[in-house]
Write a structure and sequence with these properties.
It is a single chain. By secondary structure, this protein is an alpha+beta fold. Helices cover 45% and strands 12% of the residues. The protein is built from 16 helices and 10 strands. It has helices at 4-7, 22-34, 82-97, 127-134, 140-157, 161-170, 180-183, 187-197, 205-218, 264-267, 279-282, 284-293, 302-321, 324-327, 335-353, 358-374, and strands spanning 39-45, 51-57, 63-69, 106-110, 115-119, 125-126, 224-227, 236-238, 247-248, 255-258.
Length: 395
């Protein structure tokens, strides 16, 4: 144990609070780990996340690390204690068990205190920051890096579920919602209820196809791989210039699930975008698929792959349709309405491109038409790339 003098710290620039005892706890943990004094010289909170960049001194040359913790407070989101254990399990699995450099390396962890110390990946920056600043057209090469990284993660982790689950169990982490068995629980009932509320019930052959979608996603077979849990462009750090050396971040909701769930973001807009454009025309779809096929040979089968991708996109469309009641109360012109319409229509386009799920795709298009009539402000041509270029931010 450290003596009181080595634990003492003054952070004059920080208001006193329970949360601000964290720098001292980090200093103590790293001092014990290094068996030599480590000093926290600067603590820079990276808002709005529960993350800080920390400058360390005291052992060799000064360096920075990233500290990530679990939020607290009843009004805060993502406060579940399992998130930290889950992230630790995923990161150690990737680096220690598989020897992959796809994510940050864990330097130290104190689960009881609720924080991780990770390597600082600077000067890499979040891809979505660059897209929002410059537009997607200026960063097609980095989007290709993003697509390949998604496929590489799945290719490298297929067939390794037992090793991952053993590590998670050892950390006391329960099965998160990111696992195949939990990700789509309730989607059948929710989808039917939302469709009925819109006056567009799922009937006939579309019902049979929805059953097939859920069967595919709940039993991925050779496509079972580690899913990041939030496969969006804000969760990959890239080099703005120089080598294509990217890292995936934020594995709080990681779990083993259908690999193509993590490809949906290339075909259907995620929460931050109105549209993502045509991944076939830009080559992003092929970049992802080739990377995945290096570990999952079934990805080379057009029919098998196309059905699975269409199923994944349809599931996302159904999940997002649940937002209808909230969006219906918003003022005309709200970008979230445009986003929901494009989410449905791009999911249908993906299924049509791969000649899969024709009846469910038809229902999705009809539902989008219902929304266009209900929301005249959202009755726009969202494939007009001049007006809505790929990766147009949602305001």
């Amino acid at each position: 144990m450290l003596n009181a003098g080595r634990r003492a710290l003054y952070f004059a620039w920080m208001p006193a609070s329970g949360a601000n005892r964290r720098p001292a706890a980090v200093q103590a943990l790293l001092t014990d780990l290094c068996r030599a004094p480590v000093v926290v010289e600067r603590w820079e909170r990276l808002e709005p996340w529960a993350v800080a960049r920390v400058l360390l001194g005291g052992v060799g040359a000064a360096r920075t690390v990233i500290v990530k913790w679990v939020r607290t407070g009843p009004a805060r989101a993502r406060t579940e204690p399992w998130r930290l254990r889950n992230e630790l399990a995923a990161l150690q699995f990737l680096s220690d068990d598989l020897g992959l450099a796809l994510a940050p390396r864990v330097i130290a962890a104190d689960i009881s205190a609720g924080f991780l110390v990770l390597e600082d990946l600077a000067p890499r920056v979040a891809l979505d920051h660059l897209i929002r600043r410059d537009g997607a057209a200026a960063h097609l090469e980095l989007l290709a890096v993003f697509a390949r990284a998604r496929g590489e993660l799945s290719a490298a982790t297929t067939g390794q579920a037992g090793t991952y689950h053993a590590r998670r169990v050892a950390l006391g982490s329960p099965a998160p919602v990111g696992d195949a068995e939990g990700r789509f629980a309730g989607l059948w009932d929710q989808g039917h209820a939302d469709a009925a509320a819109l006056g567009a019930p799922i009937t006939g052959s579309a019902v049979s196809e929805l059953i097939a979608v859920l069967e595919e996603l709940n039993a991925p077979g050779p496509f079972l791989a580690l899913s990041q849990g939030d496969a969006e462009s804000n969760n990959i750090l890239v080099c703005e210039s120089g080598p294509a050396d990217a890292r995936l971040i934020d594995f709080e909701a990681a779990g083993y699930a259908h690999a193509l769930i993590d490809a949906v973001c290339l075909h259907v807009p995620g929460p931050g975008w109105i549209s993502v454009g045509d991944p076939g025309a830009t080559g992003l779809a092929d970049q992802y698929r080739r990377a995945l096929a290096r570990g999952v040979s079934e990805a080379q089968d057009d029919r098998r792959y196309g059905f699975a991708l269409a199923a994944a996109c349809m599931s996302w469309a159904l999940l997002r349709l649940h937002r209808f009641a909230v969006l219906d109360t918003r003022a005309p012109g709200d970008h979230s309405r445009l986003q929901l319409v494009e989410t449905l229509e791009s999911a249908a386009r993906t299924a049509e491109t791969h000649r899969a799920l024709p009846h469910l795709a038809g229902w999705v298009r009809r539902t989008a038409d219902v929304l266009r009539r209900r929301w005249p402000d959202a009755d726009l041509d969202l494939t007009d790339w001049a007006r809505f270029p790929p990766y147009s931010p949602r305001r």
